[in-house]
Amino acid sequence: MASRARRALRSEARGPRSTTGAAASVSPPASRAARRRRGRLVGSRLPRWLQPPRTLRPTRAGWVFFALTLGVGFGALQSGNNLLYLVFSLMLSFLVLSGVLSESALGHLEVRRRLPRELFARAPSTLAVEITNTSRRFPAYAVAIEDLLQPPEGSTGYQPLGRMFVLRIAPGATELRAYRLVPASRGPLLLAGFRISTRFPFGLFAKACILESVSEALVYPSVSGTETLHALHVDQGESLTGPPRPDTGSEVVGLRPFAPGDSLRRIHWRATLRRGTPVVRQSEEPRAAEAVVYLPTGSVRAGERFEHSVRRAASQTVRLLAAGARVSLRTDTEFLPADHGPQQRTRLLAFLARVTPDAGTS
Questions:
Q1: Do 61 and 78 reside in the same domain of the chain?
Q2: Can you give 117-171 as a three-state secondary structure string?
Q3: Over the stretch 87-103, which tens digit does the pLDDT of each residue have?
Q4: 83: Cβ–Cβ under 8 A, 6 or more apart, which residues?
Q5: Cβ(91)–Cβ(76) below 8 Å
Q6: pLDDT tens digit sequence for 243-254
Q7: How far is 174 from 172, CA to CA, in rounded Å?
Q8: Is the peptide bond before 201 cis (omega within 30 degrees of 0)?
Q9: Which of 39, 220, 299, 344 is spaced 20 to 30 A from 24 at the CA atom?
Q10: Residue 131: enclosing H or E segment and its boundaries?
Q11: Looking at the domain assignment, is residue 29 inside a domain?
């Protein structure tokens, strides 16, 4: 009886353990799902893992050297000549040495670009690039840098925007290079990075790598200096041939010390004799002209006709602001209030760089 009681107690004690085991047996599907998710993650990362950090392409001289190496190796195997074996080993060491030295030229380079303040479509500009060798011992030789444009949707290859060449970069030194850039159209210009390549030291291989340096530059519409001023209205004020000049008004508001460039006619002689220093009359500054530039966007389709309107509006805006006027911009759906100065110039040109037609608005 005591043994039966012990067995019963053991079975009761095993009961909860068995239920725990059943619950654990339900968990494998969840673990399989987790494994599948992990497998998907690993599979999504595999292409990036498999992508080599460097690309190696033999040049024409490299293919010739390959053929000579194979010929010397085949002759050494057939003849058993020790001199041919020695030459074959030297040629193989040249290949290894070429890879090591080219890696030392590319492995410690940093590239930064300097974007210009303003980019205009169809107008040449200069884009500067800084190449820094972070190595403390080894210089970099024969380095070619290509600035890459973000590929359009549906394509995978990068488009080169400009190419530069540096013969030697000393350890810890920075070289400045520039290239000529002529944007084809207005709008955002997406820059992806740089392709750095070298054929150092023997010219047998062209080793290259891609450095990611994503940046965006806004290209303004092209501006023509022969555009006619077709503003909506221009208030009375100073002429638009130049910025308004102070001290040319008719109403005198006070006196101020004489400054170089002031006219002698404006000297107040009584106050000058009383104070002992030249004093001139200070007139009220004339009110700057105010203009509204109109760009039709309603019931207009994207195309060369709309782009011509945008270019004309940009030309009017630049000329009016240069003349010192307060300029506002109006479309069929938006209005930018009037202001003057460099900030207003940047604001209006940035709007014109991104503006699109509103085909559904009349």
A1: yes
A2: CCEECCCCEEEEEEEEECCCCCCEEEEEEEEEECCCCCCCCCEEEEEEEEEEECC
A3: 999 999 989 998 888 88
A4: none
A5: no
A6: 444 444 455 667
A7: 7
A8: yes
A9: 39
A10: strand 125-133
A11: no
